[in-house]
Amino acid sequence: MRTLQVGSLSLWFLLLLSLPALSQDPAPSAPVAPTTEAAAAGQATTISAPSPSSFNDVVDRVIQREHLFLAQMRHMRPMVETYLQDLKNDNSGKTLPVKDQYFLGRLDMSDGPDDTSFIGQPGFGHRMMNRLTGLYALHFLPLGFAQMVVLDTDFQKKYYNFTFVRREFLGEVRCLVIDVQPKENAPPGRFLGRIWVEDQDYNVVRFNGTYYPHPKTSYYLHFDSWRLNMRAGSWLPAYIYSEESDMKTNFGKSLHFRAQTRLWGYDLKGLNKNAEFTQILVDSPQSIKDQSDAAADATPVVAQRMWERQAEDNAVERLEKIGLLAPSGDVDKILLTVVNNLLVTNNIDLQSDLRCRVLLTSPLESFTIGHTIVMSRGLLDVLPDEASLAMVLAHEVSHIVLGHQFDTKLAFNDRMFFPDEDSFQRLDFKRRSADEEAADTKALEVLKNSPYKDKLGSAGLFLRALQQSAPQLPNLIRPHLGNSMASGKSIRMSALLEAAPQLEPQRTDQIAALPLGGRIKLDPWTDHVELAKAKPVALTSAREKMPFEITPFFPYLSRYATPGSEKVALTAPVPSDGVK
Length: 580
Ligand SMILES: [Zn+2]
Known about the structure:
By secondary structure, this protein is of the alpha+beta class.
């Protein structure tokens, strides 16, 4: 099942690009970890250093915990998604995305303890490839970024110099900050940078730097890797930010990019088992009897509805089980409230349970599965306000109102037997273009009768921003399961463009689209999503608008003993009139 696809440019190629000019690189003794990171987090608190003897013990504990971490990761199969934007400076010196790349797969590090040292080894690329399965219609492999979940697969005291820097808080977790440098004689590909270690069990919760020294003809990217306390004693990788601004390659080009890697879906097995157990409990003799009292054969119309519902349930359950769809939760209810606003003001009664769900991936897409409206996390992130959200939902609900055909072949359960990595081929919810146009027309009508009718300018503004960015960001716009929001010159709901104001990139009070990651917070263990609690910040310059762009991660770390309190404090601005 380990089918491997290598596109025209694989990521480990990026990671291990030939670079003969390496003799100019800093000596291993020169620390590269920036000291401004903590200051940027704004939560640094300096406390006196531990005594040298205890620091030695601390290092032993850290190494011990890191080996335990690797042992844990061998049993984990999280989803891993990397989204990368290539950047360029325009004439005015402003940095803008000019190209993008997208990766999605499942991380598998189960190869056993004998095969631990893959970083910097000659066969590194191939070994890392063996750790990746389940690629979903991808052109690239995420391994170049996925490996940044690991500090060092053969983490040993003898390879490193450890220097205590200070104590500081990351979120509510007090950490020891330690600079880590490989010794002169250490094998290549060791970690070089700074680690943050929580001061109860001495787990690494963040590491920031690169791998060093690189083989003669290769080099490594820089990264900032974060772990969250997902279960008691388990700090597991959740976010990795990577950035290079001027990395010279031997092709005469320089690398200039930003990339976000997210991991989630750690507890899919547990989730599925719990669901089965609940079903057994519910299925008691009493409930069977209650049903039989009211039972009657379904009328033809009701039977058709039940059949469609069965196909819908099959698809939704499958997407949830493989970690692509969030379990039902509060965000669904918020979406449903907006849908109900649209339906009630238009006197539409659908006679059916309408549901909303969140697709966990970044590319901007929305689609319907029967009577279930699905919106991607990335799309929810970038929409600037409730009116633009209503615009997206109005289009989808129009498909349902107009009774557009839903292929019920998925009602046969055998059609659900396929490998996870085939999901995007097997589950396809694309509509005919005639249906798309009809839904746009109906959606406009629905919006004009709705509470959002006077705020459609911002929805149109979002579409303008999307239209402007679409040529540079094809992978962000490319849907996996539904129709594209913008393809070629056509854009969904294009009638709204006419009434929209012009884009004014220099105005800080005109927010057409938000950066990625600012709205939806994903629990990587349970896959539950909720709205991020970070308060909106005033933008100090137009440079901070960053529509559809990638920013670094600064999650608010907390211990598992206080569940639900982990908040992501992102640098992304959120307008005050955002979705509530
Ligand atoms: Zn559509």
